[in-house]
Write a structure and sequence with these properties.
The complex is a heterodimer of chains A (86) and B (179).
Chain A lengths: L1 E6 L1 H7 L2 E5 L9 H9 L3 H7 L6 E4 L2 E3 L10 E5 L6
Parallel strand pairs in A: 1-5
Antiparallel strand pairs in A: 1-2, 3-4, 3-5
Helix pairs in contact in A: 1-3, 2-3
Chain B lengths: L4 E7 L5 H9 L7 E8 L17 E6 L3 H17 L3 E7 L1 E4 L3 E9 L2 H18 L2 E7 L2 E4 L4 H8 L22
Parallel strand pairs in B: 1-4
Antiparallel strand pairs in B: 2-6, 3-5, 3-7, 4-6, 7-8
Classes of the chains: A alpha+beta (86), B alpha+beta (179).
Chain lengths: 86, 179
């Protein structure tokens, strides 16, 4: 499935602001967490920027979500550090 | 009580606090209270540059265009319904800000003061951990991203259930659904 991935803040500095991916998840394994694991396998830079030590958050179609959020064709998924606005 | 007036803006330029508060009361016969919060770039928050340095200290704000406006607007409506607010105005700046500059305004109006105080505070507590902005501090040649604080998550948790609220400082891996 085609996913539009966006990155912000420290993640954007390492991976760029966004990328279009063509992802073929296993049946029943198409969540935000699954996508993140797959992205980590794409390059050492991805593994370092998206790894568990950064406590990253995610949004799907511009709504905050957690790792269990299911994904479908054409979704916009963003990964970013904890927010610090206000 | 339906929210009659909701204004949310994400912008690089400064705002006039007095004018914004006036907009919450103009023509509103039922409004008896206006409560507001203004966040400012602290003068002591930015570290001194390592060696002299001509560049002034600055705070740079990045955001997720589209999601900032829509999520703040949705939360403004939620808070307005919970506390029966008449109006909500939120302005959040982006880009490069200097020490002493205004960053954010949250202002609400209602018939009575308790709803106004609480609505303003809850909306600000929500914004600190759920609105997609990120701060980077610059001091001369040095810069670093500001870390999120668990105390801000605790502040939001005090308000009970929050739609779509996810704990911020722990991220996806240390996730605990609020509250």
């Amino acid at each position: 499935m085609k996913i539009h991935v966006k990155y912000f803040a420290r993640v954007r500095e390492r991976l760029g602001s966004d990328q279009q991916v063509d992802w073929a998840p296993e049946p029943g394994a198409a969540t935000v967490g699954d996508l993140r694991q797959w992205l980590c396998s794409q390059s050492p830079q991805h593994a370092e920027a998206l790894g568990p030590s950064h406590c990253l958050r995610a949004a799907v179609d511009q709504r905050m979500c957690d790792d269990d959020e299911p994904l479908s064709e054409g979704a916009e998924v963003a990964f970013f550090p904890p927010v610090t606005g206000g | 009580m339906a929210l009659t007036h909701c204004h949310v803006a994400v912008q690089p330029h400064d705002f006039d606090v007095s004018a914004e508060l006036d907009r919450l009361t103009q023509g509103r016969t039922g409004v008896g209270a206006v409560a507001s919060f203004v966040g400012v770039v602290r003068r002591d928050a930015l570290p001194a540059p390592a060696q002299g340095g001509a560049a002034p200290h600055a705070l740079e704000l990045e955001h997720y265009p589209g999601m900032t406006e829509s999520s703040i607007t949705a939360m403004a409506h939620h808070v307005a319904e919970r506390f029966e607010l008449d109006g909500v105005r939120v302005i959040h700046r982006i880009g490069r800000l200097m020490q002493g500059e205004r960053i954010v305004l949250v202002a609400v109006s209602s018939p009575h003061r308790r709803a106004a105080f609480e609505g303003c505070e809850m909306l600000m507590d929500w914004l600190k951990t759920q609105a997609p902005f990120w701060k980077k501090e610059h001091a001369g040649q040095d810069s670093h991203w500001v870390d999120a604080r668990e105390s801000d998550d605790d502040a939001l948790a005090r308000w009970g259930e929050v739609p779509g609220g996810v704990r911020n400082a722990g991220g996806l891996d240390g996730r605990r659904t609020l509250p």
